[in-house]
Amino acid sequence: MSKYKIAILAGDGIGPEIMREGVKVLKVIEQRNDVEFELVEAPFGASAYFSHGSSFPEQTQALVDSADAVVKGPIGLSHEESKKIPVDQQPERGALLPLRKRLNTYANFRPVYLPKSLAHFSPLKPEVVGEGIDLIMVRELVGGLYFGHKEMGVDENGVRYVREQLEYDENQIKAILHEAFKLAGARKKVLHNIHKSNVLKSSVLWNEVLEEVAQAYPEVNVVHTLVDAAATALCLNPGQFDVMVMENMFGDILSDQGGGILGSLGLMPSACLGTDGKAYYEPSHGSAPDIAGKQMANPYSMIGSMAMMLEYSFGMQDEAKKVWQAMQSVFADGYSTADLSKPGSGVQMLSTEAFGDKVVEHL
Amino acid sequence: MSKYKIAILAGDGIGPEIMREGVKVLKVIEQRNDVEFELVEAPFGASAYFSHGSSFPEQTQALVDSADAVVKGPIGLSHEESKKIPVDQQPERGALLPLRKRLNTYANFRPVYLPKSLAHFSPLKPEVVGEGIDLIMVRELVGGLYFGHKEMGVDENGVRYVREQLEYDENQIKAILHEAFKLAGARKKVLHNIHKSNVLKSSVLWNEVLEEVAQAYPEVNVVHTLVDAAATALCLNPGQFDVMVMENMFGDILSDQGGGILGSLGLMPSACLGTDGKAYYEPSHGSAPDIAGKQMANPYSMIGSMAMMLEYSFGMQDEAKKVWQAMQSVFADGYSTADLSKPGSGVQMLSTEAFGDKVVEHL
Ligand SMILES: CC(C)[C@H](C(=O)O)[C@@H](O)C(=O)O
Ligand SMILES: CC(C)[C@H](C(=O)O)[C@@H](O)C(=O)O
């Protein structure tokens, strides 16, 4: 029997309610497999700041160090509420980025997936969605502007200024590109390299390293696309993409656009993989404070993140697949969640909890 | 009679053929108004590099300095062709960015506009487009990562690295925000501030300055939106936006997404306004080398950029409006251009030249 210790960081806003549904699913997987999940909850995010004086308390740091995998709900507050926390303790800077750094999760996998049967959720026309949307964004997650040196000050004339650095070295670039090439090799053997080499020197180095790394993957065809052109193309013809690789900030923006073309960020799970088997899993969306506690959130992204954990951290591909299928079956049965259904469209709306229950039934 | 000297920089790829149609339109405006346009052509871009050894030759620099306004076609080559030009002479770094710096065009206005009658061009469903798309992105154009200090090198362990700075000072931020607030005041009195203050310190300063500038525009309601959330929202519900303001790189990506939701970058004109009445006008899209010379390009963005010149540089609001209406009438008559029509969709396709001719007829 395998035993895994899983850190459960529910986070802020809708975090706790979608985490609850994910945990339900894990329990089912545990019951029917020769596996034991030790689930340990810990405070993380703005709520942790208010209850424990730190958005990433020491006990949570110790837990993520000792856990076999971490699942994390969204964190963050509304623009107005954020102001009550000092800038460097705000949950993104005080908890999420330190978590990424701590586990060195350099590779963020964000599937943008909508089978043809669910194409009606997309804001795109059926003829644009075609056979469905099925691409995956591979985002560098511990470099670039996010972690570069930052300086804010006042110059000799009393003028406030800010400088922050977009930083990469060849090893960081190599690491993420190897992940992307491997994935492309296992899928359609096409890799879209998203960059801005006509302006950014970081893209120039990125592309130089890419030419070198590509030698090891002669079967993969590389297509170069400027980040701005990619933003156009994702709307006009997402079917042209399969695996897309890009630096941190570009990945932040384009993956949320990915959620847009699916119809909701609620359909965006993600895996953040580090070195030495370290990894954490999280929905790509925010904590939606406006609907928190109302049972309106879609737990798909959280449950999907758990499925990615089953696959990437525990090698349970089959169970992962079944979780995906169970979720899609719920939608295929004509149900929907609040983020996806427009009032009066005839589908039956499920609360957060009811969606989780239906997924469990299908499993 | 007013006399204006206009620098005509046709650029690369489809640049010359769409510029020709724009010039046709200017001739019509000239004929029926008490105005004289002195049109002076000059080399600019990759083609200038090959013919004159510089992508922004001195004669062109002198011309843009003395002109009353500049219109510029797209520049750039395919990823492969670009490699034949040294990195710093490539047309983006060697011509376009220096042009922006030279005229200090800090304010880039990019209308994302599709009247309801043309909603079928959008990849978005009719119910998402609703009453049409009508927003305008105000992009800071001479700061940020584009113009910050860049350093590429090899560290003491032989590892290649790159660092480039995202730089802003409060005066740059104030300048663009004043433009955005003024525009919002003249439109729906809502300003969407697009930022990433949960990660970037530059957004923290940006938002700090915004609170100060906002005091002068009490009638404008500010809505804060994270750049990633904006990328989602532009797909799901573009109607929520009217005026959006953002820094340079965010503006590059989101405005191309704007072209995506319209159905083509060929519908994206733009105005780049500087200090002391300096300005240049350009389509927001690239030079599309793959279709250059084939009369397949849509000159809407170029003619639209000329309309923006009539309005912003020459105060000819009425004529500008007529140009817009003429272009929309061509589409409303059931015609289309290659970028917009899908084969077999029944509309009649117009070549670049034929579109220009129809616009002239309508004028
Ligand atoms: C919350 C925020 C710091 C984070 C990011 O920018 O990476 C989020 O938007 C994401 O995409 O995971
Ligand atoms: C050509 C390129 C340098 C330019 C930019 O990035 O600003 C273009 O994409 C634009 O949006 O005007």
TrEMBL record, chains A, B:
<keyword id="KW-0520">NAD</keyword>
<comment type="subunit">
    <text>Homodimer.</text>
</comment>
<keyword id="KW-0432">Leucine biosynthesis</keyword>
<keyword id="KW-0479">Metal-binding</keyword>
<comment type="pathway">
    <text>Amino-acid biosynthesis; L-leucine biosynthesis; L-leucine from 3-methyl-2-oxobutanoate: step 3/4.</text>
</comment>
<comment type="similarity">
    <text>Belongs to the isocitrate and isopropylmalate dehydrogenases family. LeuB type 1 subfamily.</text>
</comment>
<protein>
    <recommendedName>
        <fullName>3-isopropylmalate dehydrogenase</fullName>
        <ecNumber>1.1.1.85</ecNumber>
    </recommendedName>
</protein>
<dbReference type="GO" id="GO:0005829">
    <property type="term" value="C:cytosol"/>
</dbReference>
<keyword id="KW-0560">Oxidoreductase</keyword>
<keyword id="KW-0464">Manganese</keyword>
<dbReference type="Pfam" id="PF00180">
    <property type="entry name" value="Iso_dh"/>
</dbReference>
<dbReference type="GO" id="GO:0003862">
    <property type="term" value="F:3-isopropylmalate dehydrogenase activity"/>
</dbReference>
<keyword id="KW-0100">Branched-chain amino acid biosynthesis</keyword>
<dbReference type="InterPro" id="IPR004429">
    <property type="entry name" value="Isopropylmalate_DH"/>
</dbReference>
<dbReference type="InterPro" id="IPR024084">
    <property type="entry name" value="IsoPropMal-DH-like_dom"/>
</dbReference>
<dbReference type="GO" id="GO:0000287">
    <property type="term" value="F:magnesium ion binding"/>
</dbReference>
<keyword id="KW-0460">Magnesium</keyword>
<comment type="function">
    <text>Catalyzes the oxidation of 3-carboxy-2-hydroxy-4-methylpentanoate (3-isopropylmalate) to 3-carboxy-4-methyl-2-oxopentanoate. The product decarboxylates to 4-methyl-2 oxopentanoate.</text>
</comment>
<dbReference type="GO" id="GO:0009098">
    <property type="term" value="P:L-leucine biosynthetic process"/>
</dbReference>
<dbReference type="GO" id="GO:0051287">
    <property type="term" value="F:NAD binding"/>
</dbReference>
<keyword id="KW-0028">Amino-acid biosynthesis</keyword>
<dbReference type="InterPro" id="IPR019818">
    <property type="entry name" value="IsoCit/isopropylmalate_DH_CS"/>
</dbReference>
<feature type="domain" description="Isopropylmalate dehydrogenase-like">
    <location>
        <begin position="5"/>
        <end position="359"/>
    </location>
</feature>
